[in-house]
UniProtKB/TrEMBL annotation:
It comes from Blautia celeris. InterPro entries: Cro/C1-type_HTH, Lambda_DNA-bd_dom_sf. Residues 7-61 form the HTH cro/C1-type domain. Signal peptide: none annotated. PANTHER family: DNA-BIDING PHAGE PROTEIN, TRACRIPTIONAL REGULATORY PROTEIN-RELATED-RELATED. The lineage of its organism: Bacteria, Bacillati, Bacillota, Clostridia, Lachnospirales. Keywords: DNA-binding, Membrane, Transmembrane, Transmembrane helix. This is Helix-turn-helix transcriptional regulator. SUPFAM superfamilies: lambda repressor-like DNA-binding domains (SSF47413).
Length: 141
């Protein structure tokens, strides 16, 4: 059974209308309807609120619905995005180091001198911007 069918069945078992549910979890009645009809999927926070409201476990709500599980996985995949940002940051820091060295050996070409002088600072800033959120997000022991 898909999540929409489970949501509708649980709501009916609780003897509540779509409007009542919508008011309790701060969404529109149309949103509840869309979830129940499979037109859209609820976010994780709404699922938790619905689980509490219907007194049904998240496990029971989610089991068997691969589409919903993929949505949750996509919505909560911060580890992958943090890893990508870290890789971009380190690549920028390495490139800034290379451009700094290249600046010393670029000869008399004024355009190359300008690029090789400015690029390390730009890349350094981008690198730090990419790495800083990941570093500051780590828990201190």
């Amino acid at each position: 059974m898909e999540i929409g069918e489970k949501l509708k069945s649980s709501r009916l078992n609780a003897g509540m209308t779509q409007e009542q549910i919508a008011e309790k979890i701060n969404v529109s009645r149309q949103t509840i309807s869309n979830w129940e009809n499979g037109k859209s999927l609820p976010d994780v926070i709404s699922l938790i609120e619905i689980s509490d409201l219907y007194q049904i476990s998240l496990d029971d709500l989610l089991k068997g619905d691969k589409k919903m599980m993929k949505k949750i996985e996509k919505d909560t995949d911060t580890v992958k995005s943090n890893r990508t940002m870290m890789n971009v940051g380190w690549a920028m820091l390495i490139c800034s180091f290379i451009f700094t060295i290249w600046n010393n050996y670029s000869g008399n070409n004024s355009i190359l001198q300008f690029i090789s002088a400015a690029a390390p600072w730009v890349m350094l800033a981008v690198g730090i911007a990419c790495i800083a959120p990941s570093i500051s997000g780590k828990k201190k022991d």
